[in-house]
Amino acid sequence: MRSKEQAALRRVATVVAQGASLAEIFETTAKEVAQLFVVTFAGLLRFEPDETVTLVGGWGRFSEVVRVGTRLPLGGVNVASEIAQTAQFARYGRKVRATGPLGERARRLNVREVVGSPIVVAGQLWGAITVGTGDISLFPLDVEQRLAQFTELVATAIATAQARADLTRLADEQAALRRVATLVAENGPPAELFAKVAEEVASLLGRHVDSAILRYEPDDTATVLATWGDTPPDGIRVNARLPVDGNGVTARVFRERCPVRIDDYSTASGVLAEYAKRHGFRSAIGCPVLVQGRLWGTMFLAHHESEPFPADTEQRVTQFTELVATAIANTQTQTELQRLLDEQASLRRLATLVAQGAGPTEVFDAVVVELRDLFKPAEVGLIRADGENEVTILAHRGQPAGLIRPGMRVTLDGDSATARVLRTRRSARVDLRTTGEGTIADLARRSNHGIAVAAPVVVDGRLWGALTGSWRMDVEPPYAYVEQRLAEFAELVVTTIANAENHNELMASRARVLSAGDDARRRVVRDLHDGAQQRLVHTIITLKLAQRALGKDTARARSLLAEALDHAEQGNADLRELAHGILPSILARGGLRAGVDSIVSRLDFPVDVDVTSTRLPPEIEASGYFIVAEALTNVVKHARATRATVRAGVNDAVLRIEIHDDGIGGADPEGHGLTGISDRVAALGGSLRIDSPGGAGTVLLAKLPLPV
Question: What is the pTM of this model?
Answer without folding.
Answer: 0.47
